[in-house]
Amino acid sequence: MTSAAFDPASLKYDDKGLIPAIAQDAETHEVLMMAWMNAECVAKTLDTGKVTYWSRSRQAFWVKGETSGHLQTLIDLRYDCDQDCILVMVHQEGPACHTNRRSCFYTAVREGETVELMEPMV
Amino acid sequence: MTSAAFDPASLKYDDKGLIPAIAQDAETHEVLMMAWMNAECVAKTLDTGKVTYWSRSRQAFWVKGETSGHLQTLIDLRYDCDQDCILVMVHQEGPACHTNRRSCFYTAVREGETVELMEPMV
């Protein structure tokens, strides 16, 4: 096991300065959502423990759950071998999806048909 | 539960025609890797049951494990509420990572330091 000081700038961002971040429930291991971070989001997430994405539509920081109350609390932040993707293990309050489903990945493709796997939580 | 015919072209691809695809172990639920697909990769993955990405460095189809033997067999293909991210539930033969680790996400950031969580499998 080796360790070294971490610098958010050491990750690889795309031409818009963004890196994909996968959120996984730290307890159930369900994949909840995928969104984007810039280097400042990575620093904020580590500093505050509140998972903070970059909203591409609003071009603004997006503290997950800040308005909905469905906060994502950081349990562990990991990144991949190529340093171009982040995995956040989180505690998710309520639904992660804006459709009120626990996970955004509620649609499957089975035998050529789309199948809805989850109902909204509320 | 609703169902409808699935068309790979109905997903949202970026300006390079690509969509991020997260691979998760269908049994342990470990997140193994993230790579990219185009619409043809999605169709091939569903048709063959072998998870097929687009190699951005080689600009070619990449049937995961075709050369290494570390095949990814599709168990279930899902996509998110925005139709701009795929989650493949897979059976992974051996390591998913080119470093011979089971998962590409073997580095964590804890108290400002990077920590290696996994050793190579072989």
UniProtKB/TrEMBL annotation, chains A, B:
<feature type="binding site">
    <location>
        <position position="84"/>
    </location>
    <ligand>
        <name>Mg(2+)</name>
    </ligand>
</feature>
<comment type="pathway">
    <text>Amino-acid biosynthesis; L-histidine biosynthesis; L-histidine from 5-phospho-alpha-D-ribose 1-diphosphate: step 3/9.</text>
</comment>
<protein>
    <recommendedName>
        <fullName>Phosphoribosyl-AMP cyclohydrolase</fullName>
        <ecNumber>3.5.4.19</ecNumber>
    </recommendedName>
</protein>
<keyword id="KW-0368">Histidine biosynthesis</keyword>
<dbReference type="GO" id="GO:0000105">
    <property type="term" value="P:L-histidine biosynthetic process"/>
</dbReference>
<comment type="similarity">
    <text>Belongs to the PRA-CH family.</text>
</comment>
<keyword id="KW-0028">Amino-acid biosynthesis</keyword>
<feature type="binding site">
    <location>
        <position position="81"/>
    </location>
    <ligand>
        <name>Zn(2+)</name>
    </ligand>
</feature>
<comment type="subunit">
    <text>Homodimer.</text>
</comment>
<keyword id="KW-0862">Zinc</keyword>
<dbReference type="Pfam" id="PF01502">
    <property type="entry name" value="PRA-CH"/>
</dbReference>
<comment type="function">
    <text>Catalyzes the hydrolysis of the adenine ring of phosphoribosyl-AMP.</text>
</comment>
<comment type="pathway">
    <text>Amino-acid biosynthesis; L-histidine biosynthesis; L-histidine from 5-phospho-alpha-D-ribose 1-diphosphate: step 2/9.</text>
</comment>
<dbReference type="InterPro" id="IPR026660">
    <property type="entry name" value="PRA-CH"/>
</dbReference>
<keyword id="KW-0479">Metal-binding</keyword>
<dbReference type="GO" id="GO:0000287">
    <property type="term" value="F:magnesium ion binding"/>
</dbReference>
<feature type="binding site">
    <location>
        <position position="82"/>
    </location>
    <ligand>
        <name>Mg(2+)</name>
    </ligand>
</feature>
<dbReference type="InterPro" id="IPR002496">
    <property type="entry name" value="PRib_AMP_CycHydrolase_dom"/>
</dbReference>
<feature type="binding site">
    <location>
        <position position="97"/>
    </location>
    <ligand>
        <name>Zn(2+)</name>
    </ligand>
</feature>
<dbReference type="GO" id="GO:0004635">
    <property type="term" value="F:phosphoribosyl-AMP cyclohydrolase activity"/>
</dbReference>
<keyword id="KW-0460">Magnesium</keyword>
<comment type="similarity">
    <text>In the N-terminal section; belongs to the PRA-CH family.</text>
</comment>
<dbReference type="InterPro" id="IPR038019">
    <property type="entry name" value="PRib_AMP_CycHydrolase_sf"/>
</dbReference>
<keyword id="KW-0963">Cytoplasm</keyword>
<feature type="domain" description="Phosphoribosyl-AMP cyclohydrolase">
    <location>
        <begin position="33"/>
        <end position="106"/>
    </location>
</feature>
<keyword id="KW-0378">Hydrolase</keyword>
<feature type="binding site">
    <location>
        <position position="80"/>
    </location>
    <ligand>
        <name>Mg(2+)</name>
    </ligand>
</feature>
<dbReference type="GO" id="GO:0004636">
    <property type="term" value="F:phosphoribosyl-ATP diphosphatase activity"/>
</dbReference>
<dbReference type="GO" id="GO:0005737">
    <property type="term" value="C:cytoplasm"/>
</dbReference>
<dbReference type="GO" id="GO:0008270">
    <property type="term" value="F:zinc ion binding"/>
</dbReference>
<feature type="binding site">
    <location>
        <position position="104"/>
    </location>
    <ligand>
        <name>Zn(2+)</name>
    </ligand>
</feature>
